[in-house]
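Incident log, support desk, overnight shift.

02:14 A customer reports that sequence design results differ from what the structure should imply. Their input is reproduced verbatim below. On-call engineer (initials T.W.) acknowledged and began investigating.
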């Protein structure tokens, strides 16, 4: 295609790339004095109504989510020969595919990229859209005032969840596509989750998990890919386990959603040195303590690479998770606990600003504890003791699936919640301490339990 001088009001600078269905041009929006990317339908598809519809649908899907982690669509128009074009956010720092060609990414860099892309992908899913073509070429980087940000682009194969509630036509990129998408099965967000995990593997290994080059080759794959720890010696087994679970051929065995996967990946990378087990009486908040291996310094060094103010932390067994402010995460223990009445350790995690001080009476340390309890009946809120040394009368609330005691000003200046909650049939013990009630409630309600099948 000959370079056009203008596309609508946009002055064309140079060609950025092209594919089977469209060409992308770097252009300048002279009215706003800004560079943009203009994606134009290829000439030979101008009369294909189905392709035109899919092209315009991409713009509609992108408009469904306004996220810093998804390429934005700013305008739509038509060329003089009636070809539609989309005006998109310009990613000036290339693609993940470019970077993988130069070699595998350091683990902290890869985790940051996947967390960005996972956030964008989850927002698409939350708004009822599947991407269906997550791959390194569609992971773009854009400059920011403090560095750069990864963004998800190219929804040319995007579909609404309503549309994929029916059997769909096979499609996708062989090296990254989920097997159920190749079979034409009814899809759900776990197809995109699989693709994101394959991209994660490629970012760390320098190659995709499998060598399939055709859709038929995807279905011929037998068994999991080789562990990343056999490719490079700086990949912890915990990280391997998180990625391999997301790459399960049976989607019922994968993480339940992208958010869970990204959180587990971050936690496994941060806590690559196994945490020690900790033991607590299930009803006494003040006795919760943790034996940590390794130092908090390494954890901090990675944690403050997170671009958002809140992060999700997952226990070592990858079934419990909680979202909390990143400045709480100075220390972490997540390798289980042994509640009273249990002969074996059960999943549990403790994250706080200072785990050693967490169990001290009156300690003004924010944090959260969550642990699986042995089978039993839901206790009454009246039976939940408060923090050690606390004389404040709590607000107690009993519901079908929760028993909650709320303490305001105990310790002084803090809000403390004690709760037992039944999640997916399992009793979970939760303790939260925060400087304000709103923050404490957000953490309390974020606790999830997703047992592996």
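02:41 Re-run completed on a clean worker. Output:
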């Amino acid at each position: 295609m000959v370079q056009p001088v203008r596309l609508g009001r946009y002055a064309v600078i140079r060609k950025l790339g092209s594919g089977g269905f469209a060409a992308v041009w770097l252009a300048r929006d002279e009215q706003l004095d800004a560079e943009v990317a203009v994606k134009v339908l290829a000439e030979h598809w101008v009369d294909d109504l189905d392709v035109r519809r899919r092209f315009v649908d991409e713009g509609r899907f992108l408009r469904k989510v306004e996220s810093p982690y998804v390429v934005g669509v700013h305008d739509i128009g038509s060329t003089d020969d009636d070809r539609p074009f989309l005006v998109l956010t310009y990613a000036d720092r290339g693609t993940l595919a470019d970077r993988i060609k130069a070699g595998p990414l350091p683990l902290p860099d890869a985790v940051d990229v996947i967390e960005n892309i996972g956030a964008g992908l989850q927002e698409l899913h939350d708004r009822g859209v599947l991407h269906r073509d997550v791959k390194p070429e569609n992971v773009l980087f854009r400059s920011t005032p403090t560095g750069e940000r990864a963004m998800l682009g190219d929804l040319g194969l995007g579909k609404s969840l309503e549309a994929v509630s029916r059997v769909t036509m096979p499609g996708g990129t062989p090296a990254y596509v989920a097997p159920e998408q190749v079979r034409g099965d009814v899809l759900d967000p776990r197809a995109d989750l699989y693709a994101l995990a394959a991209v994660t593997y490629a970012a760390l290994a320098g190659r995709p998990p499998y060598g399939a080059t055709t859709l038929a080759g995807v279905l011929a794959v037998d068994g999991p890919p080789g562990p990343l720890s056999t490719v490079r010696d700086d990949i912890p087994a915990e990280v391997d386990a998180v990625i391999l679970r997301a790459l399960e051929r049976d989607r019922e065995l994968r993480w339940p959603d992208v958010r869970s996967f990204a959180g587990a990946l971050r936690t496994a990378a941060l806590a690559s040195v196994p945490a020690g087990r900790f033991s607590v009486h299930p009803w006494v908040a003040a006795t919760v303590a943790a034996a940590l291996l390794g130092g908090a310094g390494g954890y901090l060094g990675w944690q403050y690479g997170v671009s958002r103010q809140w992060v999700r932390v997952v226990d070592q067994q990858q079934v419990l998770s909680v979202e909390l402010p990143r400045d709480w995460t100075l220390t972490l223990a997540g390798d289980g606990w042994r509640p009273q009445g249990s002969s074996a350790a059960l999943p549990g995690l403790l994250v706080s600003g200072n785990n050693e001080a967490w169990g001290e009476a009156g300690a003004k340390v924010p944090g959260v504890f969550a642990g699986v309890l042995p089978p039993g009946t839901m206790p009454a809120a009246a039976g939940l003791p408060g923090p050690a040394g606390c004389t404040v009368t709590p607000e107690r609330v009993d519901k079908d699936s929760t028993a909650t005691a709320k303490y305001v000003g105990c310790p002084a200046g803090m809000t403390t919640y004690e709760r037992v909650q039944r999640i997916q049939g399992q009793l979970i013990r939760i303790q939260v301490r925060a400087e304000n009630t709103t923050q404490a409630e957000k953490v309390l309600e974020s606790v999830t339990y997703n047992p592996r099948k």
